[in-house]
Amino acid sequence: GDSVTQMEGPVTLSEEAFLTINCTYTATGYPSLFWYVQYPGEGLQLLLKATKADDKGSNKGFEATYRKETTSFHLEKGSVQVSDSAVYFCALLGDSGGYQKVTFGTGTKLQVIP
Amino acid sequence: KAGVTQTPRYLIKTRGQQVTLSCSPISGHRSVSWYQQTPGQGLQFLFEYFSETQRNKGNFPGRFSGRQFSNSRSEMNVSTLELGDSALYLCASSTRGQASGEKLFFGSGTQLSVL
Predict the structure, then answer these.
(1) I want to staple B68 with a disulfide (CB 3.0 to 4.6 A). Which of A70, B23, B49, B103 is the partner?
(2) Shortest CB distance from B56 goes to which of A34, A46, A99?
(3) B39-55 pLDDT, tens per residue?
């Protein structure tokens, strides 16, 4: 079945550092890919998405490019802020027994220190 | 527009009991999905309901069940609780359902502790 693998956290960075959170996936066909973010005490929010190969999703300074050849969708940000501290989930929309559903990775916790 | 509302926010039960969780989606949303979130497993898909019909189901035992009402509100029930059922249960709503690829709107979850 479909699966998403994320790098284990927590990831601890200083403010203004460069961020990369790795995400690879296994799926049949051409899934849509997402990054969701969960701030403390809240539900998940969609951060960005990409629906086909070579698409780049971007939002709030975060970017991720759909790489079909490496089955990856790594999240990047050039300069992180303390307010970016949260748990980040990579996800895909793929086929599951004839019906599509969203499968999430285990999440990567990001801690940004001043 | 009000967001996705889950009640209760916290719940403490003992093994063998049953529990019912509630989710009110955003007005106009017809799809409600349920996920179990644990530190080691991340988010595990339970089921999705659309217009009162279960569309899809994850790999959970039959003790986990759900339903959706005509106003799109959904309930999830877990019977004969086990210690391993302790988790944050999240629901997510959308207009056309997961298969459309549109974004999911999540509630803050119900934190269930089984003692």
Answers:
(1) B49
(2) A99
(3) 878 899 999 999 999 99
